[in-house]
Amino acid sequence: MLSVSSLNVFHGNLQVVWDLSFRVNKGELVTMIGPNGAGKTTTVETIVGLNRKATGSVVFDGEPILGKHPNELFSKGLALVPEKREIFPSMPVIENLRLGGMGNKDPEAALARIFRLFPVLQERERQEAGTLSGGEQQMLAIGRALMSEPRLLILDEPSTGLSPLLTGQVFRSLEQLGREGMTILLLEQNVRNALAMCDRGYVLENGRIVQEGNSRELMHDARIQKAYLGF
Amino acid sequence: MTETLALTGVTKQIGGLTAVNNVDMTIGDGQIVGLVGPNGAGKTTLLNIISGMISPTAGKVSFLGEDITGMKADRICRKGIAKTFQIAESFPNLSAEQCVMIGILFGNHHAPGMRQAETEAREILDEVNFPREKTGTLTRNLNVVELKRLQLARALACHPKLLLLDEITTGLNPSESNEAVGLIRKIRDNGTSILIIEHVMSVIMGVSSRIVVLDHGEKIADGHPHDVVNNQRVIDTYLGDIDAF
Fold first, then answer.
1. Residue-wise pLDDT tens digits, B96-133
2. CATH 3.40.50.300 for domain B1-80+160-245
3. I need a labelling partner for B113 at 20 to 30 A (CA). Which of A60, A104, A153, B64 fits?
């Protein structure tokens, strides 16, 4: 579904992603892990069209998409939960969600599902989004991305700011979405949960993929355990 | 003995919502206290009350025996309470060093000259392991870890006696978090008491001498970390299945 090859990305004159190649197959749950500053966010921002200083190839559903605009990619079924949430603070919660559902033929069904996952968003649907607590804003960012029922959902650290209880719930609901056929690319610092949930993983360090494999192998790899699981 | 911080009956109503409800708590000299609770429980609001960013609607905040309730944030900062923020924002077009200098020049009473502020800024950035080659980099070009370290440095620049940390390790992976734990302990050992909000339980358990739990604005537990994480109400409302973490 998504195939990235020989991707190089630049911030000004500084190259931050080097010759990156990876793929996400239809229906797969794939995680990308790595320390902060490794280039994970830059990579997904490039995929969704937010960062166009790049060379190489990104193919989504058989079509080259590198350099296309984010709105066009969004209508093709790509949605991102951004690291910094990027909600619209002075708009009510419900309008933030509805914006995410533009283009979805049945936004009510999506909305009902999101309210089941995050009941607090329903309780606060009329409230300005900027008045939500940090964790609630994170729920809103995830909910907004789910409103479009995307074909490929990319999440940049969705567990940020969520309580342990809620983190567990979010991971379980992502798994459920995966079982229902959604394709997911997950960037996470909560490496243990990410590997437990996903089929395969890539390890990104200093802008390069240094390791890849199925999640079980990665979880039992001594280097990964030491560097990312805190053993 | 005077507590570093003592809250009595602190309450904050925002519209119809009681964000913080009748909270009592203390932080002793040199203590690290962890503040946890479900999302929207009122943790950040409580930190904002202590740092003077908002005033409580009822109750009293005492710092080193002095009533500071309702005092403005800049005065509270000069008295010795500094805070970091959940989202690591900084002045985008200033260098890391300049950001820390602002804290040194305006955040406390010793008001050194520019030259000395510059030297101090570098020392503080060193102390938080900020990369030396990036002290001149504009903050908009820094990554998450660097911004977190910068935030910490900026808070330390005020020479706080009480440091309020709002999710300082959020977004860090477990090894990066372990480093942060070491740093937090070092700051405490240098004589600063700390109140820390964090969802990463390994961090909270690793540094806190006590844990306070809020739920719907109310304090539901306060005690030794091991007792708190085995408290059934805390498990039900906050932790869920702790084995998963």
1. 999 999 999 988 777 788 999 999 999 999 999 999 99
2. yes
3. B64
Q: How far apart are CA B55 and CA A176, in angstroms?
A: 43
Binary contact (A36, B37; C-beta < 8 A): no
Which parts of chain A register pLDDT below 70?
Answer: 230-231
Q: Does B44 touch chain A (CB under 8 A)?
A: yes
Task: Please give the pLDDT value at position B244.
Answer: 42
Q: Do A165 and B170 touch (CB under 8 A)?
A: no
* Final residue before a domain boundary, out of A102, A131, A149: A149
CB A170 within 8 A of CB B39: no
Any B CB within 8 A of A166 CB: yes
A164-179 vs A134-146: helix axis angle to the nearest 10?
10
Q: Which residue is it, tokens 């390994």?
A: B202
Per-residue pLDDT, averaged over B128-152, amounts to: 91
Q: Residue A132 sits in which domain range?
A: 92-149
Is A223 at the interface with chain B, CB within 8 A?
Answer: no
Residue B245 scores a pLDDT above 60: no
Tokens of A13: 């004159």
pLDDT of B31 higher than 90: yes
In this structure, the answer to whether residues A169 and A196 fall within a common structural domain is yes
- For the segment B52-65, the average pLDDT, to the nearest whole number, is 96
Q: Is A36 on the interface with B (CB under 8 A)?
A: yes
- Domain membership of residue A35 (yes or no) is yes
Terminal Cα-to-Cα distance of chain A (whole angstroms) = 35
